[in-house]
Amino acid sequence: MKKWIEQNNYAVTPRDHLHNEYLDVLVKFGLPALILLLLIYLYFLKQSISVGNYELLIVLLMLASSQLTQSQFAHHQAITFFISLLYVNRN
Question: What pLDDT digit, counting tens, does each position of 12-26 carry?
């Protein structure tokens, strides 16, 4: 694999990701993308509370808290699972 950055005997390749989703989004895409991600979470959290969909609330809280130690969106399966859950629990 081709090295992206090489400095002080430390190499970063394009496939590397941080194990904190919020930090990973901030580093890769900048502050506007992080704010957008947090606004999306906030929208779904407020919507789940307002309609009383506590299953979606629990899933969102579990996902948001797990992303402190794992970058879920670096893996395609997690993205598909997350979008499917949002679609199923949209009421």
Answer: 565 677 788 898 888
